[in-house]
C-alpha cells in the first residue's frame, strides 16, 4: 500500500462509462484499495449484498436504474448497518444533491473527480465508519452486560437457584397459564428442619454449605422444563410444578424425601442423625379468585401442619394428606396432567 493515512478498503465502483471506471479504479488501487467494478445498478446491488464492500462509489446517471435507485436498494439490505455511499455525478443542482442524500447517499463527488478530494472524502467516511463500528461493538457489549445483570438479578448467590424476585415473575406467568388452560398448578414450600440448631452447632458457614447442598438437590429434582426450584428466603425454598395434580405432587414430595434420605446429610446436633425437610403443598386449578398470595398462604399453612405433625414430611392443604401416613397413596401417583386419578 502506498504511503498515506488510509487503511485499505474494499470499494464497490459503479459507473456505466468504462473510461471513468478505469481512471478511478487505477487511482484507488494505487492507494492500496481493493476495487470491485460494475457498470449497472442491478449488478451493483447484487455485488453489494454478496461482497459487503467498505464503501461504494456510485454513478448517478446510468441506463435502466439510476444510482439513487441502487442506493435505496442497498440501504434496504442493511437496516442495522451503514456502508458509506458516495455519489459520482456530473449534475450540480441542489435538487439532485438532496435527492441523492434522501435515497441513502452520504456524499457527492462531482465529475471529473479530483484525486485529492476523492481520498479526503474516503478518509472522512473511514473515520465515520470506524466510529460506527465502535458504537455497534459498545452496544453489543452493553446488551451482553444487561443480559448477565438481568440473569444475576434473579439468581440467589448462595444456592444458584432462582431468587424471590425471579420466583415472583415465574409464579405470575404460571398462575396465568394454569388459569387460562384450566390446568393444575402445585406450589410447595420446603423448609429445612431444625436448622437453627444446625447453625448453632456447626456454625453459619457450615449451615450455608448445607443450604447449598439442599438447593442443588431441589434443583436436580425439578426435571421437567417448567418445574422450578427457588430460594424463598433463609432456609425456605419453593418448588413450582405446573401441570401437576395433587397425586403428582405427593409423588414428587415422596421422591424428594427419598433422595434426602439417600443424601443423608449429617445433622451436627447431638441426638439428630440426618438433615430432613418439611413441606407444605398447595395444588389447585386456579380460577379468577386464586392469587399468588393465596397459593403461598395455603402452602404455608400446610407447612405449619407438617412441622406440627413431627417434621420430615410433606402435607397437602387441599387434601389434608401427609406423605408419611399414606393417606394419599390410594392409586393417586400419576404426576401427569389429565390422569383419571386426579383429585379436584
Ligand atoms: N447458615 C445460614 N442460616 C440461615 C440462612 N438463612 C436463615 N438461616 C437460619 O435458619 C434458621 C431458621 O430457624 P427457625 O426458623 O427457627 O427454624 P428451624 O430451626 O429450622 O426450626 P423448624 O423450621 O421448626 O424445624 C435461623 O437460625 C436462621 O438464622 C442462611 O442463608 N445461611
Automatic annotation (TrEMBL):
PANTHER family xref list: DIGUANYLATE CYCLASE DGCM-RELATED, REGULATORY COMPONENTS OF SENSORY TRANSDUCTION SYSTEM
Domain Response regulatory: 10-126
Keyword Metal-binding among record annotations: no
Top-tier EC class: transferase
Modified positions (4-aspartylphosphate) in chain numbering: 59
CDD domains in alphabetical order: GGDEF
NCBIfam families linked to this entry: GGDEF
GGDEF domain mapped to chain residues: 183-319
Protein name as it appears in the record: diguanylate cyclase
Naturally occurring in which organism (per UniProt): Ideonella azotifigens
InterPro entries per the UniProt record, alphabetical: CheY-like_superfamily, Diguanylate_Cyclase, GGDEF_dom, Nucleotide_cyclase, Rev_trsase/Diguanyl_cyclase, Sig_transdc_resp-reg_receiver
